[in-house]
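Researcher: Structure prediction, please.
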Amino acid sequence: MAVVAGVLLALTFISTEHFRAFGGVPDAGTLARMRASPHFVDGKFQDDEPTSVMSAGSAWASFKHWAFGREMRVPSCPLPLVTDAAVRLGTASASGLRVTWLGHSTTLIEIDGATILTDPVWGERASPSRWVGPRRFHPPPLALADLPHLDAVLISHEHYDHLDMGTVRALAARGVPFHVPLGIGGHLRAWGVPAAQIVEHDWWESATLPAGLRLVSTPSRHFNGRGFPGRVGSLWTSWSLVGPRHRLFFSGDTGRTDAFRQIALREGPFDVALLEIGQYDPSWGDIHLGPLGALDAQAALHAKVLLPIHWATFNLGFHAWSEPAETLVRQAALRAASVATPRLGEPVDFTVPLPSTPAWWRALPPIAAACP
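Model: Predicted structure follows.
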């Protein structure tokens, strides 16, 4: 047993770049800010509402679902990608608000003259390991080298499907500033990001970019977890982007929360809300929205358009890979809610009327043998 444990430890050491992918720890100044936060209680960050990640009963039910569920959790065929985004982005947005969904929660946002990248993950796996963990359904539709000038990178929380060491390192070399929740700066510093490029936020703290866009760290309902047991975990956040002409909300990961109405009052109403719909389960209702929760959040936020994120890239849940999007568009039609469902890599300019974005996932055949 000791030999097996030693081999596993050695393999983990190698595949995580000497454990570096697990991240770092907050410095003394940040740790003092964390402890002073009203959301830091009994040595850790907590949601403002009672939140359960998973009970023992639901954990067992989830395990059975994971082991014996028959859903098609991985696409049958390669997903259709729009690969000329770099060319399209060379032309200015007609409306001043354009969003390009690059997979999962990675989006490129052009708003009132500023360009923002959210939760960038170009890595092959949502994992600290290069060898083990959920693997991408599709390659990134836009290469890191083809990204335009960035005014900021926003991170919502420290989970591996939102914070990728290799991607962070590549972006840091461009000199771009990272705006992150309290505590995540420790990870970035451990990966070589200069302190001058890191801005850490508690909820409701903000920063204004030279273009006049205000970045506001707004509450979310989730949890943290990265690295080794005993490490002080970082905060999680949503982001409100408030410009001279447009307003956009980015959910990160969150469950239903009364904070949406407060966010709408303080920073809304929003032209578009980027809301997570996938990798959800009824037993995770406190920490993930799912499609119905996303529609409720859109209404609470007073968002004109919902653009779904957090789906179609990694298999992290138990539902069929396309079920969240299918449920979303069907329920949105019943509610007369405005939803945009672009293909991966397809820039959407939020002009009036909204450009048509068809349910592209319906074109994929049910079995791999029928792939074109």
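Model: The first strand starts at residue 40 and ends at 41.
Researcher: Thanks, that helps.
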